[in-house]
Amino acid sequence: MFDKTIKLETERLLLRPFRQDDKELILNIMKDKEMFEYTPDEPWQSIEDAEGFINLVLWLYDLENETFKHFFAVTEKESGKIIGICGVGGIDYDRSENEIFYHIGKDYWGKGYATEAAEVMQQQK
Q1: Which residues pair with 99 in a beta bridge?
Q2: Are 100 and 88 in contact (CB under 8 A)?
Q3: What count of other Cβ atoms lies within 10 Å of the Cβ of residue 16?
Q4: pLDDT by residue (tens digit) across 53-111?
Q5: What are the strands of the beta sheet with 82-89, ordered from one edge?
Q6: What are the structural domains of the chain?
Q7: 99 vs 11, 23, 86, 91, CA distance in Å?
Q8: I need a labelling partner for 42 at 20 to 30 A (CA). Which of 30, 32, 34, 119 fits?
Q9: What secondary structure letter does DSSP report for 17?
């Protein structure tokens, strides 16, 4: 079962479990089609998409399996804003191996945030 109290910190980021009230914040990031250019998924269209995502993540937190060992909201320490998601799990539809995954909002590309999040996630694998 996922430890809902765990928080991972880097110099600039705080990775924390998702909460029900994160849906509007994460929708603003995940509705950008460029976020999904290299994935089979589609950009989110509505608050219902974000709500479904949050409900799924909260449900995954309660499972007693290794499908998603870690699944976090990536927040910028300085502003407190959610800037993306990251985790460790079998996302390539091959659940036999875990991998690090992340989506960082386009406004934050090119600043090393994905690398920073991936490095702290690597320690959790």
Answers
A1: 89
A2: yes
A3: 18
A4: 999 888 888 876 655 667 899 999 999 999 999 988 765 555 566 778 889 999 999 99
A5: 8-9, 13-16, 68-76, 82-89, 99-104
A6: 8-122 (3.40.630.30)
A7: 23, 24, 11, 7
A8: 119
A9: -
